[in-house]
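Feature request disguised as a bug report, sorry. It would help if multi-protein outputs had a clear separator. Right now it looks like this:
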Amino acid sequence: MELTLELRENAGLQWVLERLSPMSPFGKAAAREPRWYAPGQEAALEEELDNVALGLALWDAAGGTPQAEEPLCCCDALPRLDPAALEDTTAALRGVTRCLPLFHDIRGSFDRDPGSPFDLVELFEVKHFLVTLEQLTQAYAALPPFRGIDFPPMGEALELVDPEGRRLPAFAVVNAYHPELAPLRAEKTALEKEIRAASEEEKSALLERRRQLAVREDQLELEVRAELTRKLMVYREAFLANMDALGHLDLLLAKGRLAKRYQCVRPVLSADNHLVLRGLRHPQVAEELAGRDEAFTTLDLELSAGCTVVTGANMGGKTVSLRSTVLSLLLCQCGFFVFAQSARLPLFHQVALILADSGPGSGGLSSFGREVHLLDRLLDQTRGQRFFLALDEFARGTNPQEGAALARALVRYLGRLDCMALMTTHYDGVSDVAGAHYQVAGLVREITDDEGEDPRRRIARRMDYRLLSAPPGAPCPRDALRVCRLLKLDPELTELFAADL
């Protein structure tokens, strides 16, 4: 599945990815393109989640990781670490995290013509990589093992760039690389000393000899670099495999740190195509609300095959419920813990979110035209696949009679496919044909001390954002007039509106 930037941003996945903190260029690259675990890859996903749990347990043991100002959820059943070895484990974790930021991305150096030798800068970076890798793997060996993380041995490659065994990151073409280098350099040093003491008449011949020696030295160093390149390129696949392992390890530690910071929960994979979310939050929205001294109302949601419809008041959080559900699925299928108190999630080949606005890249289509285009493309791409679809106010951009009829038809049609769908709507009659119906509790609180208050806060203080199970066919709430009055719409206009209801 392609995790497009639009899907990432609309669901909130991009916000989450930007709060990861991988330390190496390889971890950062892995975070930019997280792996998608599709149906049939449950074992691989469970392994990834095991690793995230281990990463979280390591950060928990180490302590000192900053917490969110307000915890978003809880995480249980962490791997148990040997209490007697906690100090060594913490020291090993410090050793690994000290090394990760020191790496440079040298993948480009191994994508070269065989006849093009490494230059001195590249050889320095290769040696620096190998010395740092040796230090990291020594620290990593003292940690509980992450599953699937293997570092191919690179001792022979390290000996090539560090023949003296000094383990210093600096690189030079030392005398040990070629039998002619030591006598040539000794002669060159003696000659330079002689040049400093020579008269002007004597210097010309001495300088010419020094030039000849320098040219020969350059030739020898080129031969050495060419030979080193040939020998190092034998280990190309091992270098790349180690970079992949570094990126995966770095990403796992970043996932664990994120889970600790927000107290996320490990999702349980559902084998019966049933979705259950308890205490669900959207972290981006929760952070925005916290900045206004408001609290996020957690959501409880159960979905099964077919289409579930959500109705409720304007500004009642219906879109947030879609985004929160889609974010949980995306996170789970990318091997992350999720922002909930508990999560039981099935796997899908594709997860889609179609929001009720034309948005960027609409190609001049109206919001309705864009919705239809995106829906058609999704249905074509998912033939023979299991998919999840979240639709926000589908068909609201056309006339109400046709829009309601199309929404009802889509709910019935989705019920015939191998999919799970969640649709918000203001149209009556749509929930009649849905598999399940939720309704936002709505404007239920009576508050009088709100003069001069920000209109958005005025509504938020009265709104109950909980999703409540509702019977099929229950009429959509009629809260538009109350919302208009709370937003202080011109009283004369508001009364005309009320008279026409």
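(second protein starts here, but nothing in the output says so)
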Amino acid sequence: MGSVALLRSPLVIGLVVALAACGKVEGGDVDADVDPPDDAMVDAPDAMPITNCIPNQFVDCENGNARICNGTGDGVTIQSCGGNGCNATARRCNMCQPGLSTCDGAVLESCDAEGLPLADETCQLSCVAAPTAHCAYLSPRYLPDICDAAAAMPSLTINASATIDTALDTNCTGTVVPQTGGPPICVLRYGTINVMSGRTLTLTGSRVAALVSDGDLTVAGIIDASANGLTHGPGGGTLTSGALSNSTTGAGGAGYATAGGAGGNQTVAGGAANGGAAFDPLSGTVMVGGARGARPTIGLGVSGGGGGGAQLLVSCRGNVVVSGTLDLGGGGANPGFDQIIGAQLSLIGGGGGGTGGYGVIQGLGVQVTGSVFANGGGGGGGASDTSGTVGGDGPRSASSASGGNGAVVGGSSGGSGGIGGRQGGGPGVGNPPVSQGSPGGGGGAMGRFQSYTPTGVTPTLTPASSSPNFQPNMNVTTR
């Protein structure tokens, strides 16, 4: 058989094609020299024969590597994808391992599902390698697991004054967390939270109000979680403090950061010696708001003021910045009154003021340069033949709530109620009647403010005005 016939035989043709697929054939020339591949490209000894492809274009994936058409369009070479793998859909090698995140010091490096690198994230605190690489985030007191998953809602921006009732489940966008021995916590969970300057967010309802953000939580406006008379702030009033009034004594004011003011008796200011005891919220494991003044359960009587709210501000992965105002004031008490209509007198003394609430701020960083208030409510005024006046609510300032005035009818005059507690001034005591009246009630104590940051992080606690001042900062763990 001639040489032409031999080259055309099926056996030789198959050999030539196979050699071409192995990089031994360039342009069909059996005897052509083959240039050595570079580091990224190697011959494809096991590839299916390719006789018609677009030069230098991706063909397919094989064994985790990419097959690339050679320069003459009649064969393929292998592009090694290393450990990152080949992406058939994107027709390329992955630039990084899909879905993998790693720590490089305090920098989190991540790869998306398509094998492309995401922008590096410089962690505010540190990068944690296990169980999967992530930036450290807060494990807040009272809500240790709340930051484990990102918020479903992207942002809450208060750009017009608004009221949020924590008693409504729909407002608790994170969850409702029960507390044994305390009120449930309504978690308002968002990616970011911003109360804009000049706007007021009023929080009401029976549950503790917890504003929890993934990123920064900023308060340039006002958050009002205070009591209003006998109506508690959110999560307030779980505790009852101070004694009830009767015909000869005013009620004791509720105690919290300090003891409550005592009610008056018939002859001595504070003579009833019945103010509520001080209470340290850190002594328990639950989040509770301010204490309410005593209230009668049956029959006639005088009700004490409501407790200021319990409010948590938490940034899981960022900072809580308060340049505006937080208000957790306690409620003023009801006045004494005459139980019998007409000329006959049966008088009861004024009620005791409620306390300011409990404000807790937690974040990877905490900065407070605005104003924070949790002043106690004033005691109710004593009665004569008519009622005295109510005690004032804890004010949004560093001053005291006013005590109620004693009623004056003819020659009968009740005693005035005690002022509410504030920074630098304890709650006032109730006063005795001037003549033929009933005594005033004692004022409620101020509440507390507490901050938490991770170990090694010092908060900035330089409020423009505060009543009370912050307690010493405490540390909280991260994950």
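Even a blank line would do. Unrelated, but nice: The helical segments are 3-8, 10-21.
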